[in-house]
Amino acid sequence: MFKERARGSEFLDRPDADPRLVEQGYQFMKVVNRIGGGIRVVRKFLEQELSQSMAADAATVLDIGAGDCDIPLAITRWADQRGYKVRFTCLDHDPKAVELAQDRIARCHCHTIQVVQADVFTYRPPDKFDYAIGSMTFHHFTDEEIDTLLIHLRGFVRKAVLINDLHRCLANYMVCVLLVLPLDREIRHDALLSIRRGFKPRELARRLAKHDPMAVAQRMWFCRVAGVV
Prior knowledge:
Blueprint: H1 19-35, H2 38-51, E1 59-64, H3 70-82, E2 86-92, H4 95-108, E3 113-117, E4 129-135, H5 143-154, E5 157-166, H6 170-179, H7 185-196, H8 201-209, E6 216-219, E7 224-228
Parallel strand pairs: 1-2, 1-4, 2-3, 4-5
Antiparallel strand pairs: 5-7, 6-7
Helix pairs in contact: 2-3, 6-7
């Protein structure tokens, strides 16, 4: 069951997905990012990068498939506390996600996060970014699409791409079974499929090495795998 990445589509990826389910799905992902290490992975990556940087300008970060922007908002609060300057452009193709994100950002009065509705495979920004981050995004793509996307990102990301995703294994699957019990059937389906579409560190490292011989991928806290190109 976990030997290879699963295929299949998720209910929340459909254009006619129920907005109530979409919001419930993002609420669940926010919990997973907080307790399952998603925010921690991004924070660790940026702290390592920014602590070595002498740039006076803010670091620019493209967040791919940012959803309702829970991670950019959390990272922005952390960066403010540590004295780091970070500006996010949050990209999502789903208008419902963009609407939720814009509402959250407005309520937080955050002026360093911009939300853009676009398909990342055709997105052409006016300026280059220092970094790109995809949190629980890359598992939505096939291996071939991941290759295509990394080549595309190389055209406008100067320093590094962080893949912050789910570790595909039985333990994570069983924990997820328990977490999603109270949720709607569609959310349960999507959450469990996401783990089966996730990555093992070694296989992700092999794929990334095609784009960067120095690329690394490793198991992170609890349910995460992180790869850096």
